[in-house]
């Protein structure tokens, strides 16, 4: 990071800030594979849900040639009071209802909603892709549709990774099987 402009454009610096504050919130491998827009949107969403930092920026305003430096400075300043005190090694508490529930019902509802959203999208997208085997009937997929599908897949990867980590943690609050 060399400035409060272009250095923040791809979202990696926001992801790094979140990861430094609470590593449990970020899957760096999944984030590195995303497009700039998807990475920015995921970082803003995770900062809001996981750290309680208001969503002040839009990905469309940051992923430009010259992002507004004052807007980025203002947003980055919100991260300052979320850092653990120097000398402490504990991970700060997570405010995300999917990782630390205020109530079990809230946690279950959000997990169930995300699981349902992911499986519905996968089913719909898989069925649509299966119809593309005959270009004479359906035409070829165009680049814009491919980009849109890739962006959707990047967003769904964030949900998948979160659900996967919950399943692997064998939390008693969820009943999603590994096969699901």
Keywords:
58% helix; 180 residues; repeat; 8 helices; flat; 0% strand; mainly alpha; single chain
In short:
The protein is mainly α and 180 residues long. It has helices at 12-21, 28-32, 36-51, 59-62, 69-80, 104-130, 135-138, 143-168.
Textual characterization of the structure:
Mean pLDDT is 76; it is low at 89-105. The protein has helices spanning 12-21, 28-32, 36-51, 59-62, 69-80, 104-130, 135-138, 143-168. The longest helix is centred in the middle third of the chain and has 27 residues, at 104-130. The protein is built from 8 helices and no strands.
The CA-CA distance between the termini, in Å, is: 40 Å
Low-confidence stretches: 89-105
**Main beta sheet:** none
Task: Supply Rg.
Answer: 18 Å
Strand content: under 5%
What is the number of helices?
8
Question: Can you give the helix content as a percent range?
Answer: 55-70%
Total number of beta strands: 0
Query: What structural category arises from helix and sheet content?
Result: mainly alpha
Q: Could you give the order of the helices and strands?
A: HHHHHHHH
Overall shape: it is flat
Overall pLDDT, averaged?
76
InterPro entries: CH_dom (IPR001715), CH_dom_sf (IPR036872), LINC-complex_assoc (IPR052403)
Protein name: Calponin-homology (CH) domain-containing protein
Pfam families: CH (PF00307)
Subcellular location: Membrane
Write the layout of secondary structure elements.
Layout: H1 12-21, H2 28-32, H3 36-51, H4 59-62, H5 69-80, H6 104-130, H7 135-138, H8 143-168
Helix pairs in contact: 1-3, 3-8, 6-8
Organism: Cherax quadricarinatus
GO cellular component, one term: nuclear outer membrane
Keywords: Membrane, Repeat, Transmembrane, Transmembrane helix
């Amino acid at each position: 990071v060399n400035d409060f402009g272009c250095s923040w454009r791809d979202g990696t610096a926001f992801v790094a800030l979140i990861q430094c504050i609470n590593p449990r919130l970020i899957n760096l491998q999944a984030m590195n594979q995303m497009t700039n827009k998807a990475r920015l949107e995921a970082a803003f969403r995770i900062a809001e849900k996981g750290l309680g930092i208001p969503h002040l920026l839009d990905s469309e305003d940051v992923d430009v040639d010259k992002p507004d430096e004052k807007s980025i400075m203002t947003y980055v300043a919100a991260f300052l009071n979320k850092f653990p005190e120097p000398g402490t090694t504990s991970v700060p508490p997570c405010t995300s209802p999917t990782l630390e529930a205020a109530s079990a019902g809230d946690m279950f509802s959000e997990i169930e909603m995300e699981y349902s959203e992911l499986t519905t999208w996968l089913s719909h997208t898989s069925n649509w892709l299966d119809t593309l085997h005959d270009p004479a009937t359906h035409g070829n997929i165009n680049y814009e549709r491919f980009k849109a599908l890739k962006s959707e897949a990047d967003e769904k990867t964030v949900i998948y990774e979160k659900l996967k980590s919950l399943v692997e943690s064998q939390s008693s609050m969820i009943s999603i099987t590994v096969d699901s």
